[in-house]
Amino acid sequence: MHPATYSGGFFGLIILILDLIAIFEVLNSNRNVTSKLLWSLLIFLFPILGLILYFLFAGREEHNSGYESIA
């Protein structure tokens, strides 16, 4: 078999991991519940387009509260 026939699974896995990171970031942000739900649904229903739109237009810097250190 040609090696390119298996590339879809690899790229699908990369998209899945990036989508999960983006959804985790949305849920941990300081947005209101409606905004969190809409961004999460957009990323979930349209994985590639939603991910691109999220990284371009979500205003991630202003909505991230930052991570607090446990220690």
TrEMBL record:
Q: Where in the cell is it found?
A: Cell membrane
The keyword Cytoplasm belongs to this UniProt entry's keyword annotation: no
Record keywords, A-Z: Cell membrane, Membrane, Transmembrane, Transmembrane helix
Classify the protein's membrane topology as the record does: Multi-pass membrane protein
**Protein name as annotated:** Cardiolipin synthase N-terminal domain-containing protein
Where's it mainly located?
membrane
Q: Where are the transmembrane segments?
A: 6-27, 39-57
Ranges for domain Cardiolipin synthase N-terminal? 17-57
Q: What is the native source organism of this protein?
A: Linnemannia exigua
**Where along the sequence do coiled-coil regions lie?**
none
- Annotated GO CC locations: plasma membrane
